[in-house]
Amino acid sequence: MVEPRPHDPASPVPPAAASAPPRPASAHSAPGQPPATGAPGFAAQAGSQAARKLKARRHAAEGVWLGLGMMGMVGWSVAVPTVLGAALGLWLDQRWPGGRSWTLALLVAGLVLGCLNAWRWVDKEHKAMRDVPEAADD
User: Is the pTM of this model over 0.70?
Assistant: First the structure.
């Protein structure tokens, strides 16, 4: 049997703390489990959140103007082919009247073409914004 050592009053460590088992390195690990590696700590989470806020503040005006410009570009890319299709359809209906409405058919074709064009453009812009490296923002 091991006898406890008497506590030295000059020692900064109380006797209970000196004999306690070491605590796990991570607060997320369960007792008896190895500490979780790769789990972000509070400091890392706070640092990344602060970096995101600073980046958003630096690019706030750019985001508003970019959004307004994108709305205008999407609107024009849908409106122009739709109007051109309708105009061509009206011209064809006046030149060669028949049982079918070229105006309606070409209006729908222009609308579909404009929507596909707008979708392709927005997708390209989204990929370009997503693929910007973080080092370029510093």
Answer: no
